[in-house]
Amino acid sequence: MICVTKKGMVIWAEIPYISQHMPGGRENTVSQMKELITQNYNHPSIVVWGLSNEITMKGDSDPDLLENHHILNDLCHEMDKTRPTTMAAVSPCPIDSPYIQIPDTVSYNHYFGWYGGDTTMNGPWFDNFHKTHPTIPIGCSEYGCEALNWHTSKPVQGDYTEEYQAFYHEELIKQLFTRKYMWATHVWNMFDFGADARAEGGENGQNHKGLVTFDRKYKKDSFYAYKAWLSDDPFVHLCGKRYIDRVEDVTKVTVYSNLPEVELFANGESLGKKTAEDHFFYFDVPNAGETKLVAVAGEHKDEGMIRKVEEFNPAYRLQEKGAILNWFDITEVEGYFSLNDKMSDIMATMKGKLLFATMFAKMMPKKGEKMMGGFEMNDTMMGMLGGFTVLRLPGMMGMAGINLTKEQLLDLNAKLNKIKKPNK
């Protein structure tokens, strides 16, 4: 992992000991660690030696796995007494695992708000870890969210829009950057990158969690959210430049800046000035005809436009190839649940509990059972599942060999349409 600063790079260097511990691989891991430290000991950019990455995907209690990590940790300290050790733990790994307490520091790869769970889970999770292990430096070694050139005024988890990615990173920045006890955070990823097996977001063969596109030509809005927090060079950025056609009469427009005040103009008319300690400025903009938008902060400005349309532009919406149903094809009834609602919200009602207890009792993995890929159904995994919309849940269940047909999903949606949402 690499962080770039004005004075150079800050590097977390690790060996490729990842995902699954192999009892016969100890000699190889030791050899690689020796080579890594010998070759890079004098490299001034390296700050930590990484023992492994997500190695407990199939469990954290293997005595040989634990012994191997102790051996690697001791080897690092023997060869280099100046640098601490670390490792990246997979999200469901229990925080009371003895494996967690082996290195000098530890970080977790968390995707609450993308692969299940909710964005609000991130900060409290780290608070709980810090309270439980106040002497263990804790960080976040991976977090991110995919976005392509899809757009919406109502972003939801899993829609692959630039707007949801911006919302996700706004929330993660506010939660992670304000917790001063965290030793490091790492966005996954700076750039979209090739990933042969992936088929997500409508463009196969890539992981689109980058803050910048694969060709490096376009910086997504979320890139500027980090610039607003981390850069001292004054700037202002108007979000949503690729999202022009909008159906609503009043639309939300977001501006990022590291300056204290932003003013937004619509066709030359000021919509007011706003301040924001979190660097994220939100404006409600009347949407009629064509509107030229100009965001001004100090001596800096940025421009864009929006246009009122009667029907949503289908070019902005992902239609997943091979999907049984897309979220926008689901019948929704005002005030009632649908497949587009989160499992945790539905399960908070008595009728919702009864429905899923009947339908999924024999289908869902129980706590303590293994899922495909070796993940154990523990409290963290249960919490992540609760953050999925019901429509996204079948993808997770598919990992466990459970598949639902279109007819079954539509039948379930009809039942959900009869369960009233509680008054907020």
| Overall body shape | globular
- How many domains? The number is 3
Q: Could you give the count of β-strands?
A: 17
Secondary-structure arrangement, i.e. CATH architecture of the largest domain: Alpha-Beta Barrel
The largest pleated sheet is described as:
7 strands, mixed
Terminal CA distance: 43 Å
CATH topology annotation of the largest domain: TIM Barrel
Overall structural class, as computed from helix and strand content, comes to: alpha/beta
CATH classification class of the largest domain = Alpha Beta
Average pLDDT for all residues? 89
Secondary-structure element sequence?
Answer: EEHEHEEHEHEEEHEEEEEEEEHHHHH
Oligomeric state of this protein: single chain
Q: State the strand order across the main sheet.
A: 1-2-3-4-5-6-7
Radius of gyration: 23 Å
Q: Can you tell me the CATH superfamily of the largest domain? A: Glycosidases
Helix fraction by DSSP (H/I, runs of at least 4): 25-40%
Total helical elements: 10
Poorly predicted sequence stretches spanning 5 or more consecutive residues: none
Tell me the strand percentage band: 15-25%
